[in-house]
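Hi support team,

I submitted a single chain yesterday and got back a structure, but I'm not sure I'm reading the token output correctly. Could someone confirm the output below corresponds to the sequence I sent? I've pasted both exactly as they appear in my results page.

Thanks,
R.
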Amino acid sequence: MKPFDLSKVMKNVTKKMPSVSLGKLEPKVWLSSGCYALNWLLTKDFKRAYPLEGFMNMLVGSSGSGKSLLCSGAAVKDALAKGINVLIIDTEFRLDADWMKNAGIDIDNPLLTICRTKVLQEIMTIVKNVTDEYQATYEGVDFDEQPGMLIVVDSLGAIFSADELDRMGDGNLSMTDGMRRAQDITKMTNSLSYNIAGKKIGMLMTNHVYASGD
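Hi R., thanks for writing in. Yes, this is the structure output for that exact sequence:
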């Protein structure tokens, strides 16, 4: 009986559909959380916490639990030390120069860019423009030779859609706005995940948890 060559079929499929990739996901670039115990808990490696290439990572915790210190602090510091471009999207407008310096970050590093917005649609536009330009810049360059990039969103809990902000300004918020926002953020993260897929770009985000209303 003639064997069926699945790998050959899939190679032909990927030629027609470039967005489809083959093989195992084996990231080579990792970032540290800045805490050996947390690194080990996440990856069983004292120096690794967050994979970079095409991965989306999220730190979730209550207010004041240290999410920003681990994310916008330690992870960014490690990324810059490894020559990785970093874009921080500060949705809480809290990452001031003194805080960054105290976290050990050189805020004048040319690899670091910080922007601030709370608007969901603007975040999606920023990330799409950055990832599209990145892909165009390094088209044809071997993947291993491309510089890495880290995109930080700190935090999802402070994001609002444009129409919700309009209703907020008019005092017309309703009980369903929270549910709509959760749906919008889910759609946004799906979109961002698609934008970084297959690229040497990773995302690291923070989000809040709250005590049950019950």
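A quick pointer for reading it: The two ends are 63 Å apart (CA to CA). Let us know if anything else looks off.

Best,
Support desk
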